[in-house]
Records
---
Amino acid sequence: MNGENKMGLKSKIKNLFAQKEYLPISHPISSVKEFEGKVVLISGGSGGIGLAIAKSLLESGAFVIIAGTNEKKLDKIRKDISVDTVIMNYSRPDTFKDVIGRVTEKYGRLDIFISSAGVHTENVNFWTMNPEEFNRVMDINLKGVFFACQSVGKYMIDNNIKGSILLISSSRGSEPAWSPYGLSKWGLKGLTEGLGQMFIPYGINVNSIAPGSTATDLIGIKEGDSITSNENGMNRLIMPDEVATLAKLLVSDAGKMIDGEVVHIAAGRGTFDIR
């Protein structure tokens, strides 16, 4: 074997071991149940980021209701972590008032709404994008979020609840966009700032989290898969627990003075790392 081949082999071995590195991800659990008695509705909470947030808030004493469209997934979640579930379809804004009514009828109130539902663009070619695919993404990622916030905001204002609304967006919302997915996240950025301004007189704070590529099923990552990635300068994917820790701060009393903000957790993507 010549020297050049030896160097190539050494490089491959080095990369192999680099991808097997284990990274400790912090998952803080407060000894004080700071969300004791709080009622939280999480849309898109049956997997990925939404599920990580649900588990974190449960550990902190909250009553958590997970909303989604997949009844099988919701049944499994209900058994696995002992939460209530409800069907909430972002393509059916006319049902949102009834969803909130079911939650408040059982728990007496709704303090926190977290919108984690969303879909990716299946066809990312600008030139072949069709209206059906464009509308599918925008209806869920932007239109559905808009009307969910409208329904929740009206409930909180009418019932004098100084609650919190948190939208799970993406760092793509701060980068040049030509796909429906990217455009929808730009829309959430504007919506966050607008609702923050609109709701602050009522004591309701509204924020967004903009994660970079996160290790979830949405991008095909399963438990045990490598999280090595060239998507950001840290060379790894964001973990759902990291997003959950930030989410818990933003909907807590400690985060009440954070309002109308899009908070990035993306190792620079969407701020100084624009692609």
---
Amino acid sequence: MRFIGAKLLKTTQYCAFFARNLDKPSDFWRKSKLARSLHYKWSYFVDVWRGNTNLENKMKKLTKLLTVLVVAFGGLGVAKVASADVSYNVGYVSEYYFRGILQKSSSASAGIDYEENGFYLGAWGADVGDGIEVDVYLGYGIETEAGFTASLGYTTYQYTGDTFDDEYNEGNLNLGYGIFGLEYSKGTCECFGAESDYDFTALTASFENGFYITAGFWGDESDGEYYEIGYGTTVAEIDLGASVIFGSEELSFELDSDGNANEDTALILSIGKSF
């Protein structure tokens, strides 16, 4: 089993193999995402006109992050040993959902993972419309002879665009036994100058026939839950998947005629390949 920490959940939802409070905690994620089409889009143009955009700072941070990553992977490539494993992946989804929240319709992704003796390090990027989401993660995992698995890691989510979203940093704990997997993540969002804490818990049951079921719950200064049912298979070394997500109104962008949030339901189709 490959220990890829938070990336496991990302791959599960993104490839369907398996996709962030202001006045009210539950509004935190929706407002940070919805901002790109409401307040922050207007604010961004005003800031550009005033010369106050933080795009330069974002790009500096991202450049440093990518430089460290390139150096790290470069060093690992030179010092690679027999027990090490480097893999690459590309994918496409009809709708990119992450932890029950819509990020973008029609999105492509690519990633790289390095593993050696339980240690993992990786990076994953996806098209989110306004730039690219770049996730970098690392950690350590174990698997016992009895089949119990555990991993502890850290993930940072960065964005190249200036209006889509800001920065998230979190610790990740993953436990597994048999068909069951449990994830707990605790993090902080630096969202357009406002800091907020959140946690996320998910329980997944993955069956040998390719079907899986996931229930995910937001907590701390955020709120909302979602449920996902999906199926994944491999045909001619190509990963194919389909899933249905049922999200609570706290995570939804869907509005009724009165402007109130509705529960969200989405059908996701995916295709991907690992090298």
---
Amino acid sequence: MQINVVGVKFKNSNHVYSFSPNGLKLKKGDYVIVQTEKGEDLGVIVKEEYQTNHEDLVSALKNVVKVASPEMVKKAEEYDKKAAEHTQKVKEIVKSFNLDMKVVKVEANFDNSKLIINFTAENRVDFRDLVKKLAEVFKTRVELRQIGSRDEVRMLGGFGPCGKICCCVQNFGEFDHVSMKMAKNQNLSLNPNSISGLCGKLMCCIAYENPTYQESIKLMPKVNSEVKTKDGIGVVVYNDLLDRKVDVKFVKGDESEIKTYSLEEIKFNKEQSN
């Protein structure tokens, strides 16, 4: 069955969630109040009304309650700034409980009815007594959210080894699986320290670029296979997968020479392709 939905994003998340527009005329960029499993929350429309199959939804469809006014959005930003000022105090309280956890970010929900503390930890943490203490100190409801190291970088931001803003901050929705095989496809160093991002895990861009490299691999001749060029028959010693160029080695007596050709300039048995 086809149903009408809109795509909504929340702060600190690149995932797009589906909600029923509930008869409202909504456009991209509108801030809205939506009903979630944990109560009402503030989000932004990133995908205008469209149809999808009801069977494709991963959870029960909830409604957009109303369009948020500019004043509500401004208030929410002010609440967040005020909540961030509590970060040091929260860290001190956590330290006093000797809990093995790292406070990443302190924020408020859109109507300031709850303090949200994002943290990382190697293992499961029993923070029941901590929550009681935090609620007592800040005189409000408190929610502790355990996040992963990649979520931490997305939340705090930063620059990758390439000098650009980390991919997780701006490009990706859900985090894709990244494997060493992908790195091998791209002729990258297989030393994890050389290809890891700020989060300590393999860089997201490896997965992002992998489909392009996979397509190139299918078109290129195998290394050590023979190819025919305008200069004669030589042996492939290197494939530049990104530019789709091939380094070919020619041997004449005791001398050898390496020349570079585009994929269109060589001929080879397609069965010898990767």
